Amino acid sequence: MTVRIDLLPKTKYVVPGNSACAGCGMMIGLKVLGMALGEEAVLSIPASCASVVQGLGPKSGVALPILNVPFASAASVATGMSEAFRQLGVKGQAVVWAGDGGTADIGFAAVSAAAERNSDVLYIMYDNEAYMNTGIQRSSETPKGAWTTTTPTGKREAKKDVALILLAHGVPYVATANIAYPQDFYRKIKRASEIRGFKFIHLFAPCPPGWLFDPSLTVEVARKAVETGVFILWEYDNGELKLNPPSSALVDKSRRKPLVEYLKLQGRYAHLSEDQIKQMEEEIDRKWQFLLRFAQAARPRA
Amino acid sequence: MRTLAVLKTALTGNYAVAHAVRLAKPHVIAAYPITPQTTIVEKLSEFVAKGELKASFVNVESEFSALAVVYGAAMAGARAFTATSSHGLFYMYEMLWWAAGSRAPIVMAVVTRTLGPPWNIHDEHNDILAIRDSGWAVAMASNVQEVLDLTIQAFKLAESAYIPVAVGLDGFVLSHTVESIELPPQEAVDEFLPPRRPDLPLRLRPGEPITMGNIPSDDRLHAEHLKNIYRASQEAKKLVKSIDAEYGKLVGREYGGMVEGFELEGARYAVVCMGAWCGDAKEAVRSLRREGVPVGLMRIRFVRPFPDEEVAELSGMDRVVVFDRDITPAGGILGREVASVLGRDKVVNVLAGLAGVDFKADEFRKAVKHAVEGEYADRVVLL
After folding, report:
1. B66-94 burial, b for 16+ CB within 10 Å, e for fewer?
2. Could you tell me which residues come within 8 angstroms of residue B145 by beta carbon, excluding any fewer than 6 positions away?
3. Cβ-defined contact of A73 to B98 (cutoff 8 Å)
4. pLDDT (tens digit, 9 = 90+) per residue, B355-373?
């Protein structure tokens, strides 16, 4: 499926009155979600930036049906909505729109349970790689080396690969996406919503105040993450795992841009030594090798 | 009154809950097993598997998620039920407040059990009483028949007041004890409890951009919302009575609304208690009456909202003996609540039956006698 950007729906679901920061990456993602599922989706949103950017009640700057819910509950609340739709004969898609903290950390038990049950939920984790709503504290999705207010000398531990963990639950659909590639994200939402069961999309969403870059550079930072190989676009559908463009053209390491082009845009990496950057490059290589072997193993049977 | 084709049968308290839920026809049930609640959800999953109840039964990984699932279902317009006990109830804590704050009309059975440490599965009321300020209506049954009737009534109350309702039953004493009961026919329950109006208090559905729970533009909006929940809880007292009366007309059993009075006519002393052991307390009252002690009993059915008006009717008593099957650093919970209406001087607060320790009718009799004769030196008596 090719998605032409000029043919995307024109109805706006992110409207004036929202209170997102300038250059918010997550908000770009929410716009795409609106385009793809605006008339079908009902959102379960846990405590997060996403609960704040809606603007001030009783009004809302996001024109979607939204149930704001406690931090760890989003996947379970969405399961309940989905079961209610089924029992009441309502055509709709329960969607979780949650941050990396609400997904990979405090809400993880509920996410894992919803996946294991194969509940009919589209779960989108917008990943800004830290607890941004409370002021930039590390999460299990913060990359190694990155500065946050609770890792003042850089995080020591590696980023948790939630998408692969969800894949291991045996759910029908798992993908990664990036706000710099809205057509790819749009297509993945559409594809996911065709499937009854648990679908997971890991959306890469840079955060200007949290990553310490100028708000005008959000899309540039997001694009560089893919072009340097830091973030890999892939999709697991119908038992097959494959890379998506442009990541699929970057299997050969020499075609990727130097990692430093991504790092130098962001203040959170400013303290890194050359050795640390070299180590980071090696870890990115290992991640690619692991994923490619995984893709090889997950090819459909002839 | 019409003659109903009731089914006379024998059930445990937990199976009575399950049958009441089956008759109430919920759309979504979610629960996590915990002793002594487990057989409720086992029975309900069996009803669903056999097609005797057309509902989604969702298996979850925790009680927190059990309540989150039924909360999501209720906010999308479904009738929803969960059940838990003790530590499971406490694991739900954040969701309990969120559900009440959302005016979600959920019904939950709470099979009362003490809290650890140590691990102990036996009866006590500390668990259900700990949620008394969360915004839920909290009721306790006193026998298996009432468990069934109260559970059916709870759906009507929740969907009339837009307050979630917790129905308590004593662990093992009721949950696992078989009693002879009457099951009302489905038509009678259908008449009493029509399908839920899914659009109230609001309904999350595709294409309707309603946002529930985002940050208020003015804290006074939130404050007003909290006051409205208080007002709704006060209004719910009337609903408890009218729903009990309506149910009574239909099936022939009425419980008295917020409280049940027993032998209060001509009494100078009153016993106040809650839950299954009120049966033993009544036996003690009968026995004391035979001895010539003018004592009656008020059984608290709903502890939230609190029956202030009914308790105030005891103000003419010389002494009121409140039995708590709970303990806090400040004494018994019911004892303090009753004293807040009647004043401290009138109330003797007896804390007994803790951690599942049996407290028999004769022990009630002795305790009441001591209390009315002024033989206890302290206001809080630990037995």
Report:
1. bbbbbbbbbbbbbbbbbbbbbbbbbbbeb
2. B16, B179, B181, B182, B253
3. yes
4. 999 999 999 999 999 999 9
| Residues A98, A101, A102, A105, CA torsion sign | positive
pLDDT digits (tens, 9 = 90+) for B165-208: 999 999 999 999 999 999 999 999 999 999 999 888 889 999 99
CB contact under 8 A, B74 and A88: no
DSSP secondary structure letters along B62-98? SHHHHHHHHHHHHHTT--EEEEE-HHHHHHTHHHHHH
B287-323 confidence digits (pLDDT tens): 999 999 999 999 999 999 999 999 999 999 999 999 9
* CA distances from residue B138 to B41, B150, B364 in whole angstroms, order as listed: 20, 11, 25
pLDDT band with cut points at 50, 70 and 90 for residue B1: low
Is B98 touching A (CB cutoff 8 A)?
A: yes
Q: Does A24 touch chain B (CB under 8 A)?
A: no
* Domains identified in chain A and CATH numbers: 5-297 (3.40.50.970)
Q: In terms of DSSP bridges, do strands A41-46 and A93-99 run parallel, antiparallel, or are they unpaired?
A: parallel
Q: Please tell me if residue A12 touches chain B, with a CB cutoff of 8 Å.
A: no
Contact call for B58 and A58, based on CB within 8 A: no
**Would an 8 Å CB–CB cutoff place A292 in contact with chain B?**
no
Which of A37, A42, A108, A117 is best to mutate for the B interface (most B CBs within 10 A)?
A42
Q: Do the beta carbons of residue A178 and residue A184 sit within 8 Å?
A: yes
Domain with CATH 3.40.50.920 in chain B: 260-382
Determine, for residues A51 and B214 on separate chains, whether the beta-carbon distance falls below 8 Å. Answer: yes
Chain A neighbours among B 178-207 (CB < 8 Å)? 198, 204-207
Token output for A284:
């990115």
Where does chain B hold its CATH 3.40.50.970 domain(s)? 7-251
Average pLDDT, chain A: 96
Instruction: Centre a 10 Å sphere on the Cβ of residue A130 and count the other Cβ atoms it contains.
Output: 29
CA distance B18 to A99: 38
Structural class in CATH, domain B260-382:
alpha beta
Question: What per-residue confidence (pLDDT) applies to A1?
Answer: 67
Whether ipTM tops 0.90, in short, is yes
User: For residue range B142-153, what is the model confidence (pLDDT) as tens digits?
Assistant: 999 999 999 999
Average pLDDT for runs of 10 along chain A of length 302: 83 92 97 97 97 93 97 98 98 98 98 98 98 97 98 97 96 98 97 98 98 98 98 96 97 97 98 97 97 85 56
What is the homologous superfamily of the domain B7-251 according to CATH? Thiamin diphosphate (ThDP)-binding fold, Pyr/PP domains (3.40.50.970)
Q: Using CB atoms, which residue from B59, B73, B214 is nearest to A68?
A: B214
Query: Inter-chain contact B27–A67, Cβ cutoff 8 Å?
Result: no
| Half-sphere exposure of residue B281: CA atoms within 13 angstroms, side-chain side | 30
Residues A28 and A179: their CA atoms lie apart, in Å, by: 6
Judged by CB atoms closer than 8 Å, whether chains meet at A77 and B69 is answered as yes
